[in-house]
Structure formats: structure tokens, C-alpha cells
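sry for the spam today, last one i promise. C-alpha cells for design, 417 residues
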């Protein structure tokens, strides 16, 4: 298993370009299954998760190719409705083929994704939504079996805001008969991006980006050529990288308008943040202020930035309280940060209290999930001496060439095969 070795306390200076958003690419690539023909997507990040969903699309009968960030998916030959456990267990977001398969083929047999390190990650809301649209769904032997001659529009109320649940049902409703209203829908930029692609395909969706989305079903969707939006979580991660090293980094090809709460909270720490239309400049300061954050669905502070923010607070002056309200077990990184000298305690399973220390000390640490691995890399950049981050396959799921980008900013970082 690859490791990443970092010699810390190097100021990051220079420019870095943000890649396409993983969490926009995955649902948008799945939406290509709704069309009879070849769609082309630009600015697709070369990630393990992206390759997984392309492999799954091939398994379902689509033809795919990926070269230099351009992905083509021709699903005119879609002829298999089985998404096997072997593929789904490696990448939970495979659940995103469920809606498209039922809408396009009238049936789907998709393995239950199962949980992961950060939580149980149930998909009950995806299933209940499909049933509301008239699908017959039953679970057997760990698989979701869904079928419907033709889905029928209906009103769906999500009792919990779910990002991929909203995406799955928006895709299913796009080809249903009649009108569907999604209430308490997720409002993340990736939802808006998916709706824009579906409308480009010929769907009739309004309200994406608000908590109420209206979908008027159509009979057919057509292939498109479009571009994936920049990754707001990668952007936030590089903002923290500059802040924790007292750096001066210009982050390019990003969308500051997707990062309102993150920019505001990073500014509250005293870190200098300047923004333009598609760039953010972050200059670290000597004395970082401790502030409290609470994760919540967009436009609130994103749970996917919680681990990275804890790294910043671990070397801030004062005490900060971090509340995680989305996932039940998303503080696994805390143990590893404590091994690097961070002073953090967990008064409850969803609260971390971080007392800033002067400096973190390099150590061998273990990544447990995608964003935890990012937070440990950031801690290694800030810490004195050497940090070895083990199990970096987690990192490769969601960050394109992270160590190359950090190296170009002056970090002493290398991958050990
Ligand atoms: C998406 O996961 C993202 N993944 C996650 O990013 C992100 O952390 C999460 O949204 C929250 O923003 C992708 O977009 C591929 P949810 P998703 O359904 O859709 C509960 C990363 O690091 N829930 O919004 O799986 C669930 O348990 C990843 O890039 C149900 O109870 O998350 C959780 O507590 C990690 N029943 C809450 O809702 C359901 O049917 C939010 O989950 C679905 C969800």
C-alpha cells in the first residue's frame, strides 16, 4: 500500500489549479446512462472513484473511454441491470446507477452499498423515493431489486437532506410520466450542476439549488457534451494547506461562490482570503484564531471540510468546538491528530473540543477515509519533522495528483510505493 512522506514546516507559496469535482462527476457520469447515445464530459478528475463508476457503466453495457480529463460514455448498448457487490462495495456512490437503471431499463438489481468508516450510510430514502414513483422494490440477499414499467411522477418529502438521494430521484423522475416534486431536497452545487446537465439532455427540471425541485417527466433524454464544475472541497483543502503553513497560495479554476461558509469561517480565523470570479488567494497568519464550527447541509459548513478544519484549529490560539451533525462517526482522524500532539477531546460522539497547541510533531499516522487522509496530509505539512501517512489509497479516491500539486507549492512531499 502506498504511503506519503512529508517533511513539514515548509511555507506553501505559488499557484495551484483545482480539478473537476468528484461529487459532481459521479452523478453526472451516471446520468449518461439515461441517454441513448454518446455523451462527452470535460474537466473530469482522474480519480479511483471516477474509474470505478466507468467500470460499472461498462458492466451495465455502456462503452466508456477516458483520456486527459475527457470522458465519453455511450450507453446506447445498455443491456444489464445488475450492479454487483464486488464493484458497489468499493464505491458507495455506485448507488447512483439505481435511478437511471429503473428509468431507462425499467428494472435494477443494485447491491446495497453498505456502510463505511464514517457511518452506516443507509439508502432507505433512495428506496422510499423510488417506491413513491411507483417502483416495486424488495431487498434480498443484500441487493435492491427495483422494477417499474414506467415510473409515475409524485411528491417526495425527504425526512433527512440527502445529496445522492436527491440526485438519484431527480434522475429517475426525469423520465417518469408526469410531475414530481422533491421537498427538503439537498441544495449542494453538485445538485444544481446535475440538473443543468439533465436539462441539457432535454429534461424539464426547475428549482435545483433550492429545497424544492420540480421535475416534469419527458419521454427521452439525448446525449450531451459538457464540462464538470470545479471541486469545492479540493479548493477548501488547499485553502487550509496555505493557512496551516503560513503560506501565500493563489487557487485557480475554482468557484468561490460555492464556498461562502468555508471562506467566511477561514476569514474568522484571521487568515487573509481574497476572492475573484474563479480564484481565491489565501495568506496564512502567525496567530490563527480559534473559532467554533458546526457542519450542516449546503449552504452551511460542509461536513467534507470538517476534518481539514480541525487540523487548522489544532494549531490555533485558544479553544474551538467542532460539531459534526451529518455523519455519526466522522472524528476518526482525531486519534491520529492526537498522536501528532494535537490537544483534542470528544465530550460526545458528535462534538470535538480542540485546544490549540504551538506546534504539531511529525509521526507515522493512518488514514481511515477520504477526508481524514487529507486532514493528516495537512497536519504533516504543518508539523515539525517527518510525517508518514499510511493507506493513502483513501486519498486517491478523491484528490487528483495531490502530492504533485503540493510539491509545486514548495511542500517536501513524496509518495512511497
Ligand atoms: C454525499 O454523500 C457525498 N458523496 C459525501 O461526500 C458527503 O459527505 C455527503 O453527501 C454529505 O454532504 C457524494 O456526493 C458521492 P447523504 P451521501 O445522503 O449522498 C443520511 C466525500 O468525502 N441518509 O447526503 O451518501 C446519512 O446517513 C463524501 O466526498 C439516510 O439516513 O450523503 C447521513 O447521515 C463523503 N438515508 C445524511 O443522511 C438515506 O437514504 C446525509 O447523507 C440517505 C442518507
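last one done:
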Amino acid at each position: 500500500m502506498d504511503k506519503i512522506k512529508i517533511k513539514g514546516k515548509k511555507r506553501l507559496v505559488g499557484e495551484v489549479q483545482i480539478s473537476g469535482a468528484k461529487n459532481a462527476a459521479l452523478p453526472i457520469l451516471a446520468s449518461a446512462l439515461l441517454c441513448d447515445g454518446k455523451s462527452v464530459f470535460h474537466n473530469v478528475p482522474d480519480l479511483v472513484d471516477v474509474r470505478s463508476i466507468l467500470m460499472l457503466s461498462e458492466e451495465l453495457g455502456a462503452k466508456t473511454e477516458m483520456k486527459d480529463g475527457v470522458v465519453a460514455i455511450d450507453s446506447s448498448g445498455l443491456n444489464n441491470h445488475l450492479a454487483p457487490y464486488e464493484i458497489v462495495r468499493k464505491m458507495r456512490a455506485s448507488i447512483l446507477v439505481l435511478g437511471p437503471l429503473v428509468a431507462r431499463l425499467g428494472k435494477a438489481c443494485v447491491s446495497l452499498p453498505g456502510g463505511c468508516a464514517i457511518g452506516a450510510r443507509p439508502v432507505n430514502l433512495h428506496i422510499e423515493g423510488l417506491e413513491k414513483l411507483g417502483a416495486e422494490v424488495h431487498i434480498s440477499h443484500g441487493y435492491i431489486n427495483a422494477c417499474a414499467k414506467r415510473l409515475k411522477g409524485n411528491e417526495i418529502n425527504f425526512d433527512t437532506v440527502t445529496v445522492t438521494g436527491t440526485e438519484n430521484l431527480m434522475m429517475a423522475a426525469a423520465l417518469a410520466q408526469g410531475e414530481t416534486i422533491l421537498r427538503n431536497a439537498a441544495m449542494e452545487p453538485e445538485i444544481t450542476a446535475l440538473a443543468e446537465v439533465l436539462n441539457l439532455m432535454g429534461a424539464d427540471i426547475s428549482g435545483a439549488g433550492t429545497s424544492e425541485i420540480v421535475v416534469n417527466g419527458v419521454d427521452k433524454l439525448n446525449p450531451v457534451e459538457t464540462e464538470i464544475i470545479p471541486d469545492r472541497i479540493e479548493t477548501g483543502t488547499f485553502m487550509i494547506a496555505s493557512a496551516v503553513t503560513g503560506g501565500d497560495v493563489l487557487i485557480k479554476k475554482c468557484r468561490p461562490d460555492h464556498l461562502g461558509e468555508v471562506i467566511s469561517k477561514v476569514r474568522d480565523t484571521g487568515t487573509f482570503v481574497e476572492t475573484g470570479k474563479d480564484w481565491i488567494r489565501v495568506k496564512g497568519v502567525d496567530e490563527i484564531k480559534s473559532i467554533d464550527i458546526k457542519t450542516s447541509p449546503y449552504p452551511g459548513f460542509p461536513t467534507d471540510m470538517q476534518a481539514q478544519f480541525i487540523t487548522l484549529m489544532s494549531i490555533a490560539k485558544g479553544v474551538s468546538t467542532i460539531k459534526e451533525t451529518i455523519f455519526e462517526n466522522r472524528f476518526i482522524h482525531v486519534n491520529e491528530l492526537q498522536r501528532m500532539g494535537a490537544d483534542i477531546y470528544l465530550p460526545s460522539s458528535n462534538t470535538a473540543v480542540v485546544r490549540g497547541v504551538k506546534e504539531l510533531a511529525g509521526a507515522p499516522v493512518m488514514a481511515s477515509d477520504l477526508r481524514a487522509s487529507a486532514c493528516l496530509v495537512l497536519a504533516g505539512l504543518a508539523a515539525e519533522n517527518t510525517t508518514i501517512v499510511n493507506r493513502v489509497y483513501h486519498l486517491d479516491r478523491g484528490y487528483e495528483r495531490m502530492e504533485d500539486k503540493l510539491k509545486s507549492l514548495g511542500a517536501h512531499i513524496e509518495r512511497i510505493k
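The first helix runs from residue 22 to 31. ok im logging off now
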